[in-house]
């Protein structure tokens, strides 16, 4: 039984569990590394999807260029492990965390000149050189310089004025806020920015970081522009590309399983009986009347996995998620392959949107299989 970071230990052992199969994770990482190598693209292993849990993060050591997270708390735990792989922070930094940033990470993504100045000062105080990847916003409208002249100016400044920073590269982010697709044309814009910076600082830069798992689709489609040489992969390594509608036979979608226990099985109507108001969260909900059916309740809810019970996928496709409140999830088990009874364990595949919650709560235990 592994302890997750940043959470209280549970004194007793009970459901629900997450089961993480490290060998399946290794398979996914190897399969994607092999495919990225064809295009000279290296992988940054993004561990925020499972809250940076050390036992799982260790799988990435020595197999990726950097281990990365958006959260310094997670990277700090990894730093204590003294792994061989350097650490990257992929959320642009708060002014209040620059000292911790340069203490914990060798490299970070940045987009604000005033913060970059503070990072230089923090690195100077600690007597180290911190590497910077300058983020360019090419349309997704999350982080990144919008004005190209500003990113060129900042690159020159890092190169010439900041003694404790090293301009390691440029990067971008797509498919996050603005749902912008990583088309070859979009990614070429980033390569063009790199080319112009190289001209202005009169040397080559090492890294052109072309986004996360959504950019991997373009690579697998053989359309990644020459010059993109790094992808920061989280979800695709952890669960394949199902979110993007791709079911690839060489990627496991069940690295993580959720095991829950049944606490009630009853034959009930499917349509609520009585005068209807709002649900546990104040929402007006529409219910479908499919007649009398057999319903099971498992002891897990939105407190554990976030707001989306319908992202849970049962291994038995005949079991359907009907809905959930904070602590209960209701299933239609009328057509389940095996009759369901109290005490049974019902297993689910975990989607990324649930995993970030499930790995960050002390109400769900974790079993790591190696
Ligand atoms: C989360 C994140 C990633 C990884 O995204 P996935 O879609 O999980 O591959 C990459 N870059 C940044 C900046 C991120 O915040």
From TrEMBL:
Indicate whether Isomerase appears among the record's keywords. yes
| Alanine racemase N-terminal domain sequence ranges | 21-237
**Per UniProt, which keywords does this protein have?**
Isomerase, Pyridoxal phosphate
**InterPro entries assigned to the protein according to its UniProt record, in alphabetical order:** Ala_racemase, Ala_racemase_N, PLP-binding_barrel
Protein name according to UniProt: Alanine racemase domain protein
The organism is Peptoniphilus lacrimalis 315-B
One matching Pfam family, short form?
Ala_racemase_N
Q: Which GO terms describe its cellular component?
A: cytosol
């Amino acid at each position: 039984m592994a302890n997750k970071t940043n959470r209280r230990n549970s004194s007793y052992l009970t459901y629900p569990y997450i089961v993480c199969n490290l060998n399946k994770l290794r398979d996914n990482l190897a399969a994607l590394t092999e495919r990225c190598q064809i295009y000279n693209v290296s992988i940054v292993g993004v561990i925020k999807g499972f809250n940076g849990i050390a036992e799982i993060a260790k799988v990435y050591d020595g197999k990726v260029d950097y281990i990365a997270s958006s959260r310094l708390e997670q990277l700090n735990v990894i730093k204590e492990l003294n792994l061989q792989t350097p650490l990257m922070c992929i959320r642009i930094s708060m002014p209040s965390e620059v000292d911790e940033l340069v203490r914990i990470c060798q490299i970070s993504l940045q987009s604000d000149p005033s913060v970059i100045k503070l990072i230089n000062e923090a690195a100077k105080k600690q007597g180290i050189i911190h590497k910077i990847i300058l983020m360019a916003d090419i349309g997704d409208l999350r982080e990144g310089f919008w004005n190209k002249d500003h990113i060129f100016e900042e690159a020159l400044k890092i190169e010439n004025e900041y003694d404790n920073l090293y301009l390691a590269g440029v990067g971008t982010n797509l498919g996050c806020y603005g749902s912008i697709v990583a088309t070859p044309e979009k990614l070429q814009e980033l390569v063009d920015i790199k080319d112009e910076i190289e001209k202005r600082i009169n040397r080559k830069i090492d890294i052109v970081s072309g986004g996360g798992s959504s950019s991997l689709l373009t690579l697998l489609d053989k359309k990644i522009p020459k010059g993109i040489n790094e992808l920061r992969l989280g979800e695709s390594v952890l669960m394949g590309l199902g979110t993007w509608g791709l079911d690839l036979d060489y990627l496991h979608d069940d690295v993580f399983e959720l095991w829950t226990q049944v606490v009630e099985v009853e034959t009930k109507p499917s349509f609520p009986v009585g005068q209807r108001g709002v649900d546990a969260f104040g929402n007006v909900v529409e219910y479908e009347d499919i007649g009398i059916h057999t319903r099971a309740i498992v002891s897990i809810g939105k407190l554990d996995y976030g707001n989306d019970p319908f992202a849970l996928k049962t291994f038995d496709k005949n079991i359907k998620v009907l809905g959930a409140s904070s602590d209960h999830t209701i299933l239609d088990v009328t057509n389940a392959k095996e009759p369901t009874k109290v005490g049974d364990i019902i297993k689910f595949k975990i989607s990324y949107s649930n995993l970030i919650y499930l790995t960050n709560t002390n109400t769900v235990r974790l079993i790591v299989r190696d």
